[in-house]
Amino acid sequence: MRAKITYFVLAAVLVVYFVLVGSRGVLLIEQGTPLTVAFGVAVLVLPFIGAWFLWKTTVFARSANRLARELEAEGGLPVDELVRTPGGRIDRDSADAVFAKRRAETEESPDDWRSWFRLAVAYYDARDTVRARRAMQRAIALHDGRPVRAQS
């Protein structure tokens, strides 16, 4: 729940920032000189890029949470079998061992969104967030019946 609150607070702050930056861009355009119009247009592009990124991130998070709820209802969420340090951090060797198991599971059933979901969690636990996101995107696409690109 804390993560959701943090996400919404940060998203609200970003939206306020987008509005402020956008208003500065409009003010620059209203000046009417070629230079200020060029800067104004450049400044206006930034909030649109940020808003697009925020939207895509929100859609991704909602889709991943939807899959997590469905997998939990099926009793298929991965069990936390990771060894932790006294400070609570995940032991790297433990994460690597779980990752190897999840990767083998995914190789056995590459068209199962559930195995890709569990692999994404294993990637995340192994601190590989780029691959975790890609694996989760693949799980979402498989779940939703969308075409899936070949692994690169």
Features:
152 residues; mainly alpha; 2 domains; elongated; membrane; transmembrane helix
Structural write-up:
- The protein is an all-alpha fold and 152 residues long.
- It has two domains: 2-74; 92-144, no CATH class.
- 77% of the residues lie in helices and 0% in strands.
- It has helices at 2-31, 34-74, 92-108, 113-125, 129-144.
- α1 runs antiparallel to α2 and α3 runs antiparallel to α4.
- The chain is elongated.
- The two termini are 35 Å apart.
- The mean pLDDT is 90.
- The chain crosses the membrane at residues 7-29, 35-55.
- Keywords: Membrane, Transmembrane, Transmembrane helix.
- This is Tetratricopeptide repeat protein.
